[in-house]
Amino acid sequence: MQCEPEDDGLLESTVEDSLGGTVVGRLEAILASFDGSDHALALSEISHRVGLPKSTVHRLANQLCSVGWLERNSGGYRVGLRLLELGSVALKRTGLREVAFKHIYSLALKTGGLATHLAILDRGEVVYLDRIAMTRFNLPSRVGGRAPAYCTALGKAMLAFADQAGQDSALKQLPRRTEFTITDPRAMQAELETIRRTGVAYDREEAYRGLCCVAAPIRGGGRTIGAVSVTGPIARMQAHSLVHDVRSAALAISSGEPEPVYREPAQREPRYRPPIHRVPVSAAGPR
């Protein structure tokens, strides 16, 4: 049986400031340590990720288990179904996901099976509301997940039209994610000005190596309420050829236009098939 430290008060006090100095801050840090993963995390791993003593993590994790936010199994702790229930409520709050679904689905078909995303901006981060992926390539995004706004096309599309306070908060720090990440504040402001002028944003391996993205803002009521994007391997992406379809999808979502069903162009004339005459059910067999 593993023994827990009897007195972690001194160590706990050294990390309280970084976690907000509150129980809520520490609970949030524990939940955030899962980082969207469905895999179970051992107590020691959670402790390492959040920088809290194992005894503190053990106590708080058990409290989270008692309300269904975490679950415990032989491998450790994992995210509980109660969080899924609460998250689904939050996703429905704006109604944007329901309005946009048919448009991002059609966009995925038009672009040859590349992935499409719908997202909103929250406290300097992109929150993914929906994702349509019809081909198999590795994507770091997930519904309900977050990503930095400054290095994603979705984020930049929304930041370009955000108020000054929102921009300042999101662009306070620009840590390098890849060698292509824009980390210079002046270069970022120039990038946002271009987005305001063209209505489209690009991410060329700025967030993740090997991935490219094209995004456009969704406007409503004189403000930006979200963004839509197409994402795929940079070797397959012809970004400029996607601009029209991405902007059209964003505009259609903004205006609530119905989206016609997209059909692949016919490759050849279909073979003639004689009509099939079906006997009505009421006339089939004796009564």
Mean of residue pLDDT values: 78
Oligomer: single chain
Query: How many H/I helical runs?
Result: 10
Structural class: alpha+beta
Any idea what the shape is? globular
Low-confidence stretches: 1-20, 258-287
CATH-scheme architecture of the largest domain: 2-Layer Sandwich
Sketch the topology as an H/E string, one letter per element: HHHHEEHHEEEHHHEEEH
Q: Identify the CATH homologous superfamily of the largest domain.
A: GAF domain
- Please give the domain count: 2
What is the percent of helical residues? 25-40%
The proportion of residues in beta strands is 15-25%
Largest beta-sheet characterization? 6 strands, antiparallel
CATH topology of the largest domain: Beta-Lactamase
Query: How much is the radius of gyration in Å?
Result: 24 Å
Q: What is the highest CATH level, the class of the largest domain?
A: Alpha Beta
Quick structural overview:
The chain has 287 residues and is α+β, with helices and mostly antiparallel strands. The protein has two domains: 9-85, Arc Repressor Mutant, subunit A (Orthogonal Bundle), CATH 1.10.10; 94-255, GAF domain (Beta-Lactamase). It has helices spanning 9-16, 23-32, 43-50, 54-66, 81-92, 96-110, 153-159, 164-170, 185-198, 239-255; strands at 70-73, 76-79, 115-122, 125-132, 146-148, 201-204, 211-220, 223-233.
